[in-house]
What we know:
Layout: H1 2-23, E1 26-39, E2 42-64, E3 67-79, E4 83-86, E5 91-96, E6 101-106, E7 110-116, E8 129-133, E9 135-139, E10 142-144, E11 147-163, H2 166-174
Antiparallel strand pairs: 1-2, 1-11, 2-3, 3-4, 3-5, 5-6, 6-7, 7-9, 8-11, 10-11
Amino acid sequence: MRTKNFFAGLLMTLASALSASCLAAPITYTISGTASGTLGGTAFQEKAFQAVALGDTDARIPIDVGVYVLALQSVDVTVDGVGSGLAVNAFSFFVNQPLSEVGLIENLSGDVLDVSSSALAAYDGISSLAGTPVANDFMSSFSTTGGLFALDTASNLLFSARRVTAKQIYRRLYGKFSNPRNLC
Length: 184
């Protein structure tokens, strides 16, 4: 009897762990626009740029009502015609629904790129979101493998988030007509 209950409990634990892992998904956050500034000591004027951050939806932590932080795996910045670089230090992504704001935080020094829009008032930080026009709220420099990235001005800003499921990853690897039956 004890053995039967043990295995039943083990199966329930395994099933709940597998279903929980199906909820987590890689997510990319992108802030893009036109900017002036420097990357690695090279000045640029009115160039297209983008900052792309990669995280996992399972890493989201509630800080307060409507305020969330999510540890990031990487942040990559690219400036057209100038170059690119990966952030050297650890970063997090934040959502502040009461302020209708999202952004990037360098874990050692604080906010580095914050944007806002009334469309972000209900954004949860783990859902996909199509390109949304946003306003610049705060900019600060940070170190990348391509040198110091610093924005002086930024305009025509867009924020987007793209969540990728296990099925989408499988289909990218094995083709759109494959049938990933055993995935989430």
